[in-house]
Design a protein that fits this description.
The complex is a heterotetramer, with two copies of chain A and two copies of chain B.
Chain A: H1 3-13, H2 17-20, H3 25-50, H4 64-72, E1 80-82, H5 88-94, H6 98-105, H7 140-154, E2 160-165, H8 172-183, E3 188-194, E4 197-198, E5 201-202, E6 223-227, H9 231-246, E7 252-257, H10 276-283, H11 287-297, H12 303-326
Parallel strand pairs in A: 1-2, 2-3, 3-7, 6-7
Antiparallel strand pairs in A: 4-5
Chain B: E1 3-5, H1 6-20, E2 24-28, H2 44-52, E3 53-55, H3 60-72, E4 76-80, H4 91-97, H5 101-104, E5 114-119, E6 144-146, H6 151-163, E7 168-173, H7 176-179, E8 181-183, E9 197-200, E10 205-209, H8 212-228, E11 232-236, E12 239-241, H9 245-255, E13 258-265, H10 270-281, E14 291-295, H11 305-311, H12 315-327
Parallel strand pairs in B: 2-3, 2-4, 4-5, 5-7, 6-7, 10-11, 10-13, 13-14
Antiparallel strand pairs in B: 1-8, 6-12, 9-11
Helix pairs in contact in B: 1-6, 3-4, 8-12, 9-10
Classes of the chains: A alpha/beta, B alpha/beta.
The complex binds thiamine diphosphate (2 copies) and magnesium ion (MG) (2 copies).
Chain lengths: ~350, ~325, ~325, ~350
């Protein structure tokens, strides 16, 4: 996984890389802002968990660049996403708010994704075209193909982005979904956030090929591996996939190599299965300071700006936390609502 | 009104559904040029084209998964599982996904997917082309399960399934496909999901059945009426989930004697729930223990004709059960 | 005798099984270096090596499928499904394959696969980490289903499961893992698959339960005995398939009043079959309608504490049910 | 699918190809004999079906060369097979007899595979290491990986051959089984009898790659496409795969391109979905006359020998038919035998 270093090198030679990709300065500032918001929100969730205020937390820390890079390549106004539980940054771009996420964390009635029924980070919104997520790893993949089929039939040019970890690619549903999408050249992007582990199981025990992108070979679709901690590279390859998809050329499989900086979830202890040096090495490639450095280097922000942003984000996170804490739980008498319609 | 077989009524219904709503999709194995292995989808490809009539790869989980994704995006998929025996690879998508989408989004999303599958035995289909699988699903809140026994109901229940917003399992008894005939209106109509039908009134006992077994029960009841003066009430459940509790309870209270008949395995079958409901709600009206006459607890129906016949309830064995019940 | 929690008894049992038979394999997600997400397999990898303790890819159908293939070749796989909620992708391999192999080969092959899975709620696990799934399987002939409620039984039933030749689903209530403690002999022993246990004798009514609910039922029964003089008999099913009909019938005949308690959804749950058996075999002994006190027919348990608690039977609600039953 | 022609050409230049592969003359005669027996048995099954004496028949006609070529590369004394319903020739090599197959066709008690419980061509024998087959397409694939795992742990060098159609490769179980076997380098050969259709669904709607062998790319294992109507070529590539497997180098995926000469089963009518010209063209490449010609060309048999063989096979088929017809059905009171043990 030396991609990170390679890109760092490249960066020294390619000043203003974002502009070459057609991203405005404002885009980059916004990207950073979302990544920071996702990170701080996520950190707060863990604090709430560790202080006994939230029974569970699951982390996207480390994955923010991959998510934001992908999100920026899509069209929030018409495209669909099928996120998974690490996609805090992705769904923030898509329109869920910090309050929404905190309401779900605490199981409150106003949680727009599930009314306090689902665990944290189970995102859903019909209005925002965020598909209804479950916890069952892999099931969303054929479903995303089904949504892409609908878009194809409608001729709207809408694209579906479906995300998952590398572990999910061992599931039968991954194969069935990609196979169907490839046969029918559906406008769907299979976006794998490869953090090297499925809980404790390392990639070598989940795959027999070096890269998840190699799996694309069996379906005759493009498979691209990209440094998932570099939002611009991710943006670039996803944008290409989006163009292909909108042009009717079918699906792509994109693998963003990244790392989760924390344990799998608040119930996990990763110290038994991840060497501390490995974690430390990846901390050095944390996408947040990296993008902060880029902002400064390219004159998009100075230390004062970044400080102000931190402050603004902290307020948002505080507000979301307080709002969610004050919000009521669902009522017991609604337990049987929405089982079926009439 | 034209007379149709069960399979013709279904074909007629599928064709009309495709006409009525341009967002209706048919998807399954061999549903296109082959028109389905039983012919249920014959003619659809020619008429509605390969965009809306999709020959799926041999992968049941994706048949349902793709249908769910299309439904989430506002389409109306009519998925076919070629034999109910092969619905198992899709159980995760059906139970963990389709059935929970409305609930898990607190009603924001619905998942109106209709999944048809031929089920049942008596066609030398052996262990993997004879299964009854409703017993694996009627325990799943969030689903509706429909099993029509007549062409009229088949068409009407299909309409009703397409009119509402929940995932529906629509099981068609494959031996009834060509055996059972009846009148079917040309124009679209619906038969509501939920209510059972009293196919024959009677005062001595109640026989509760569904699918092909309704016809066997009626045959037994007619013979017993003619030959022995026993008047059995025969109820066709039509909908397995939800069950029509009121009709069942009222009939049990009236006759005091209840026989439940199904082809599916006994333990944990639909008959168990029916018996439980009656033991809760009509206990002191019962003049005889509740009886279940069902497929035995063998994994499935053997191929050889001797054991296949031994597995299946038939009009004679049903008549025997009614006789014993009434004489209790 | 050492005192262990339920999870310790299982870990102890798994370790012994691996020692007793060099053809025993443990396979599942995170069972290796991580020792299982609940710690059930902790220490096994170090002791028995990665050949026999296999971290499987995230693909439940293959966990069971690979286990079947190893069993067919004479090995003794002990598969783990990380949460019962994720057993659904493996339903095809369990129901259509493992459960039918003995039958379909007329006894030539057997399929001795033991599949463990933590189930049940009350741990803020929400819709996908709280499910009870026994109701989806007890309708399947060819399987055996075991749900221990005590550490002693857990170890002994695991031994029994490994001693016989059929596929066994072994469900462990995850909230009971650390909550329930008891004595467990050091040496291997088995508790037979099949018989229920009468955990408390009583004459006023019978409470039938399994898993964590046994403990809630006992708590309710003790309180009612102390405070109100009501003596409930509490039966722990232990084996869901096959059911111990004799014990159930005898107790129902003795007390005349029956309450069935389970966490699993009501419709089509194990309680339905128990009620049906009693309505068939003990009808005229019953002095009150059979009652089921179960999880409601919601797709699964919500995350928020209010609705989670509302979903679950507890000692207070069970006591209420017993009171009403006895006063009927 | 021009492989057939290419190999026909080759044949003209490679006299005695079988000897180069290490096959004896006797091997080749035996291969032909099994293929012929499989064909005539299969034909008889259809006759029994068409005359109302057997409720169902499913055909291996056209697939015989693929099956026999593969079977010859394995060791019948220690290797395992997981066959599927077309594998009449394969299981004949493995030791099931014409009587056994006819007993199952007619659902008779003495059917050794299932005691009259399963449909025709559901092969099974613990004694012969023929795995217990179901009708559920694809389920045998992870099971075969499990058996190969057992063999690996036992260190016996035994190999597992698992067969299936190209349609089966769309199933999640295919992916999960191959993935697991590839990760653990298990001694298993995934052998696809690609006849171009899953009932009526043509390969283009099941796969998005030209060859099933391409699916191997996603698992980093060898994928080989071979003319399935040429038993020697099949033998050659399977033998290579067997050597790899026995040497601990892991699984292979082999795709034998072939064709079913009849409809999917006796319940099917293929005239709606297979152009008659296509069927006719494949009839020209029927592996049986092709191997007969080879036998004659290389002096392994003359017309009289072939005639004598036909006669001998006819007698075997007659015997099997009469034996099965005379055999009793299972008794009703055994319906509940072998559901579970005690
Ligand atoms: C079908 C299923 N099996 C098991 C689990 C338990 N589980 C939750 S996340 C996870 C690991 C997922 O790994 P990966 O796909 O790589 O995603 P990551 O968490 O690493 O981002 C497992 C085993 C599950 N949720 N669903
Ligand atoms: C899981 C499952 N789904 C559907 C079927 C019905 N079915 C039997 S064979 C078949 C086609 C198989 O095609 P392929 O794998 O290419 O094998 P072929 O018959 O062409 O040799 C189908 C759909 C089945 N047996 N199992
Ligand atoms: Mg991962
Ligand atoms: Mg085929």
């Amino acid at each position: 996984m030396a991609t990170g270093d390679r890109v760092d090198l490249l960066e020294r030679y390619q000043h203003g890389r974002h502009r070459e990709l057609g991203l405005t300065d404002e885009d980059v500032r916004r990207m950073y802002e979302v990544m920071l918001l996702a990170r701080r929100l996520d950190e707060r969730m863990w604090i709430l968990n560790r202080t006994g205020q939230a029974p569970f937390a699951i982390s996207g820390q480390g994955h923010e660049a991959a998510q934001v890079g992908a999100a920026w390549a899509l069209d929030r106004e018409r495209d669909w996403i099928y996120p998974y539980y690490r996609d805090v940054a992705l769904v923030l771009v898509w329109g869920l708010t910090p309050r929404d996420l905190m309401l779900q964390l605490l199981g409150k009635a106003a949680d727009p994704s599930s009314g306090g029924r689902q665990m944290p980070n189970h995102f859903s919104s019909r209005r925002l075209r965020i598909a209804p997520q479950s916890s069952v790893v892999g099931t969303q993949i054929p479903q995303a193909a089904g949504t892409a089929l609908a878009s194809k039939l409608e001729g709207t040019g809408a694209v579906t982005l479906v995300t998952f970890g590398e572990g999910a690619t061992a599931q039968g549903d991954f194969h069935e979904g990609v196979n169907f999408a490839a046969i029918h050249r559906l406008p769907v992007i299979f976006f794998c956030e490869n953090n090297g582990y499925a809980i404790s199981v390392p990639a070598e025990k989940e795959l027999s090929v070096p890269d998840v992108a190699d799996r694309a070979l069996g379906y005759g679709i493009p498979g691209v591996t990209v440094d998932g901690n570099d939002p611009f590279e991710v943006y670039r390859v996803v944008r290409e996939a989006v163009e292909r998809a909108r042009a009717g050329e079918g699906p792509s499989l994109i693998e963003a190599k990244t790392y989760r900086l924390l344990a799998h979830s608040s119930d996990d202890d990763d110290s038994t299965y991840r060497p501390r040096e490995e974690v430390e090495a990846w901390r050095q490639r944390d996408p947040l300071p990296r993008l902060a450095a880029y902002l400064k280097e390219h004159g998009l922000a100075d230390d004062a700006d970044l400080q102000a942003l931190e402050e603004q984000v902290r307020q948002q996170v505080d507000d979301a936390t307080e709002h969610a804490q004050a919000a009521p739980y669902p009522r017991a008498e609604h337990l049987l609502d929405h089982v079926t319609g009439p | 009104m034209p007379v149709m077989t069960l399979i013709e009524a279904i074909r007629h219904g599928l064709t009309q559904e495709m006409e009525l709503n341009p967002r209706t999709l048919v998807l399954g194995e061999d549903v296109g040029v082959r028109g389905g292995v039983f012919g249920a989808t014959r003619g659809l490809l020619e008429r509605f084209g390969p965009e809306r009539v999709i020959d799926m790869p041999l992968a049941e989980s994706s048949i349902v998964g793709v249908a769910i994704g299309a439904a989430v995006a506002g389409w109306r998929p009519l998925a076919e599982i070629q034999f109910a025996d092969y619905i198992h690879p899709a159980m995760n998508q059906i139970i963990n996904e389709a059935a929970r989408i409305r609930y898990r989004t607190n009603g924001d999303y619905t998942c109106p997917v209709v999944i048809r599958a031929p089920f049942g035995g008596g066609v030398h289909g052996a262990l993997y082309h004879s299964q009854s699988v409703e017993g694996l699903f009627y325990h799943v809140p969030g689903l509706k399960i429909v099993i029509p026994s007549t062409p009229y109901d088949a068409r009407g229940l299909l309409r009703a399934a397409m009119e509402q917003e929940d995932p529906v399992l629509f099981f068609e008894h494959k031996r009834a496909y060509r055996l059972v005939k009846g009148e079917v209106p040309e124009e679209p109509y619906s038969v509501p999901i939920g209510p059972a039908a009293i196919r024959r009134e009677g005062r001595h006992c109640t026989v509760i059945a569904y699918g092909l077994m309704v016809h066997h029960a009626l045959e037994a009841a007619e013979r017993l009426s003619r030959e022995e003066g026993i008047e059995a009430e025969v109820i066709d459940l039509r909908t397995i989930l939800p069950l029509d509790r009121e009709t069942l309870i009222a009939s049990a209270q009236k006759t005091g004697r209840v026989l439940i008949v199904h082809e599916d395995n006994r333990t944990g079958g639909v008959g168990a729930e029916v018996a439980a409901i009656l033991a809760e709600e009509a206990l002191f009206y019962l003049d005889a223990p509740i009886r279940r006459h069902t497929g035995p607890d063998a994994p499935a129906m053997p191929f050889n004709p001797v054991q296949e016949a031994a597995f299946l309830p038939n009009p004679y064995t049903i008549a025997d059960q009614i006789r014993e019940l009434v004489r209790f």
